[in-house]
What does this fold into?
Amino acid sequence: MELLCIRQWISGLLPTVKKWLSAWCIKPVGGALVRQEPEYILLALMGSPLKKIMLCSSEKEIFSVEEQVMVQHSVIINNMIEDGSYNHEESKIPLDCVDSKTLKKVIDYCTHHTHHHNDNQEDLEAWDAQFLNVDSNGLYDLLMAANYLEIRNLLDLIYGTIKNMIKGKKIDEIRRIFNIKDHGFTPEEEEQNRKEYPHFY
Amino acid sequence: MELPEGCIANIIARTTPKDACRLCAVSKLFKSAADSDYVWGRFLPSDVVSLVSHSQSHSSLITLSTSNKSLYLALSDSPIVIDQGKMSFQLDKKSGKKCYMLAARALTIVWGDTPRYWQWIPLEESRFSEVARLEHVWWLEIRGVLSTLVLTPNTHYAAYLVFSMEEDRIGFQDCPVELSIGMLGGEASTKNVILDPESDGVRQLPNLRGNPWLEIEFGVFFVSSTEDEQVQMSVVETEAGVLKSGLIIEGIEFRPKEDN
It folds into this structure.
């Protein structure tokens, strides 16, 4: 049955239920309040597929993902859905600064954490560690995507990982990790730094 | 890989104050991130503004500090006196955790108000306006209490008696003194120590902490993140019937235990 038909049927048959659901369908999600369309709540209750949204990578590849998943994790996407700038029938959300490979990984992260949020801490941490087992370019891309989409827990995870990567390292190694070719200091400043932190070099 | 300054600041904020100083040397961008108010705001305790503004002599510290970093360095370099001269506050340089010292005036010293037993005198080397000087007693009993709410949560702290000995002190070389520490309503741990640093023997002696002060540890306690507990300390020698004199008490200091 067409989604549109179901919607019309419900809207027509159950105006009072719809009114009740409108009042009821406010759920707190990661600190933001999200209103779900009452028809879709009913559909979800009836076991229909959960509402999806479309994300479009910089390579123009479309990814369909549960709205619930992205709204729970990304402040940016949550705001777009909430303020109505996203139209479910027609829109896709263009993410011009995220490539397909990275977008797929971000979606994986959000999906796993939504569906497995009741898992024990150790299992989640092990999954996270495996998830971040990427090269430094991959990590950089993930960080930029998480930053753009404002995915707090992924950001915390990546920041923590990078912090551990530089812990106890000498300055040359840190410059290598961050691919810093030109540190920007004058020779005198560099000399001064060496004197101040001899063991760091 | 060109990380924006905001991301770099977020990474550095998760390291330590010492690391943040070193990371200034990585690159100009790192230096800008590492010196930022965002990073040092994360290192400072959240109630630092109200703490400092309650210090009479140092309320200008906030306005004079040009940045959170300079405020942090100022607070970790030297203590400020707060609470009408009854306490001092400082930041532990490495960790940014709070350190306090209860002045002698904030302690309960038995016979402390009787001038022939204890005198209250100003001392240039003390951060407080007065210290307690023992003329002579047989009954030595000093008690202190602190609410753990003022300390940094989830931290192991140690408490230290901070004191000095006059040249002509008597009664402390051979006579051990009982130090005790514990939470109100809980068990106390006690130990017998010798306060005179020039004593021989096997008991624990005090350490020098900066002329003329000595310190000796009461013990260690853990500050939980949720409960407001009272930690109690005492210094007691009332059994031996030995005359004691020449002890100067500055206060009791609380600071994070090293291996935090």
Notes: Chain B has a mean pLDDT of 91. The radius of gyration of chain B is 21 Å. Chain B touches chain A through 19 residues (CB under 8 Å).
